[in-house]
Amino acid sequence: MFITFSCGRKALPTPVATLPPPVVSDLQAHVEGNNLKLTWSVPEWKSEDGDRVAGFRVYRSEESRAEPVCEDCPRRFELAAELAIEKTTSDGGASYTETVKETFRYFYQVSCYSNDGIEGDRSKTVAIHP
Fold first, then answer.
1. Whether the model pTM is above 0.70
2. How many angstroms separate the CA atoms of 24 and 95, rounded?
């Protein structure tokens, strides 16, 4: 004789909602000659399952200075760099440097990503006109 019991629910398990990492709120840009340096603070964050900020993604959009400025036009951002959290500075901040050209306008955004690879929203855009 076999006896089986069941709860009667026939649905797939629901995954636990995971909150994305916070937004970088203090992105700043400094230009010296042809060198750009982006700086920002590392947000304090720990998810319910112990996930932490693992690194940052830097996004860049560039346009020729020969073209007129269009403030309302959408910009196409591409991944410029992925930085592991180990690249933070001693003051608890993070930075990214690259060479820029005087003939272009640059726009940058930064996002955090977690150990699980979940990416948070991007920061506000910082514009550079070297």
1. yes
2. 12
Nearest by Cα to 120 from 61, 76, 56: 56
pLDDT digits (tens, 9 = 90+) for 5-50: 666 666 776 666 678 899 999 999 999 989 999 999 988 877 767 6
Q: Which residues contact 48 (CB under 8 A, 6 or more apart)?
A: 16, 19
Annotated domain spans of the chain = 28-128
28-128 maps to CATH 2.60.40.10: yes
For residue 35, what pLDDT is reported?
95
Using DSSP's 3-state secondary structure scheme, residue 40 falls into: strand
Helix (H) or strand (E) holding 20: none
Is residue 85 helix, strand or coil?
Answer: helix
